Amino acid sequence: MKNINDFDNFSANPIISFKNAGYYKHRVGWSCTQTADHAAFFCVESGKMQITAKEHTSICSAGDTVFIKCFETVTLKNASSEDLSYYFVSFFCESDFDFQINTVTKDSNALRLFKSISETHRSGAYLSKIKIAELFLRLLHLLCSQRLEKSKDYADTHKLLSTVEYININYYKKITPAFLSQISGYSPAHLRRLFVKNFGVPPMEYILNKKIDMVKEILLEAPEKTTQEIAELVGFCSASYLCKTFKSKVGISPLEYKKTTHC
After folding, report:
1. Domain ranges of the chain
2. What is the 3-state secondary structure (H, E, C) of 136-157?
3. Does residue 11 or residue 41 have the better pLDDT?
């Protein structure tokens, strides 16, 4: 069983074909164990489904979609105090995926596609095969798009953390928005959005807060240092600017802060 976010072999392997689809509803206490010769997607409509294979167990709630690998023995169980209902879409796939149980982000569009595939398959109409093929491809595209979007989020996070690491090490240097844009690979506007989203403040304010934190640390660990010396150490242009900024951020002057921490 594998996280759908890892379905990166779809684009490379065209040997994928629809097999079956359906809808089931089970009462409290239901469970079954099965080994299938095909892969499948399960999408929970209501209730909770417990899926166990080998030593791995996952609980899928309403809206969750899970991938089940070919030839794995899997136990499905109603894990709630209400009826369990779910859709499934099975298909042949020659790709050899590693075993894993996981669920994907809830997506109402995915649930609608599962329902459409199931209803079209049940109709038995001559043109249903063409319609199912279309709907099945749309489902694969939707779930794979989720993987790509999460990959993009990971890339954003990785670049952002690299930029933050640079700031934490070089906070005392003169750092401009243009330079941060250069080292991160993002435009200043996009980098600002990422900082606000993840830290609540834009990049330049993040740097300023870092400077203030370091001022506090120096006041605590080296109280003998003058305000001018501290300003030079953390990258403030003057002692007066340090005092003004410190008071606006902390509410008291550096001297008052030093007194409160060494009393």
Report:
1. 4-149, 171-263
2. HHHHHHHHHHHHHHHHHHHHHH
3. 41
Per-residue pLDDT of 112-148, as tens digits, reads 999 999 998 888 766 677 788 888 888 877 776 665 5
Residue range 80-104, pLDDT digits in tens: 889 999 999 988 776 554 434 456 6
Full strand arrangement of the beta sheet holding 16-26: 16-26, 84-93, 39-46, 65-68
Residue 67 forms beta bridges with which residues? 2, 41
pLDDT in tens, 15-48: 567 888 999 999 999 999 988 778 888 999 999 9
Q: Put residue 54 in one of left, alpha, beta given phi > 0 → left and psi -120 to 50 → alpha.
A: left
| Residue whose C-alpha is closest to residue 5's, from 149, 125, 196, 128 | 149
Query: Which of these, 120, 148, 149, lies nearest to 134 by C-alpha position?
Result: 120
**Structure letter (DSSP) for residue 28:** T
Mean of the pLDDT values across residues 164-183?
91
Q: What does the pLDDT read at residue 142? A: 79
Contact, 73 vs 33, CB < 8 A? Answer: yes
| Residue 65: strand, helix, or coil | strand
Domain boundaries 171-263, corresponding CATH code: 1.10.10.60
Architecture of domain 4-149: Sandwich (2.60)
